[in-house]
Design goal:
177 residues, alpha/beta, Rossmann fold, 5 strands
Amino acid sequence: MRTERLSLASSADNDDLARRLLRAPDRPVAWCVLDWASEETAALTDLLVANWGPGLCYHPGVPWADPSRVAVLPKVAVTRILRSAKTRVWSSESEVPDREYVMESLEHGCLPLQFTKTARIKGDNGVGDAARALLLRPNSSGSLGPLGDEEFGARLEVVAKALATGELERDLSHRHG
């Protein structure tokens, strides 16, 4: 899996990031997918469009593109996408949220959501409440109902609190070494 950062880094502290995150409901775009081109990324984008409506997508590194130019959009443009979206969604087989994607999303006030088809494990294998709020799973039919305002707000509150206290970063750092 490629891990190069697609957006500009932020120098804001965790309290500022938490405050920005709580303003996410005011953003004009429901979701974005900013991830390297793959079958999984394409399938996730299709699932989101079918179930959540339109969103913003950027999939650099498509196989037919010039291999010497992996990302066409400049980082400032990707940053604008993140700052316009309420949520950033990516796909992973892991049940533990990807620290790099989580922090990159939070730096731009975007609620990070890791889509995984991994079945929910009782207690989610020791994953904390905030990390659990970052996981998105399909329902039994394989579709993904949109996040209602109440669920979205609850996830935001949990993540913002854990971010402001440093709990989220400690939890994600501990799980990823």
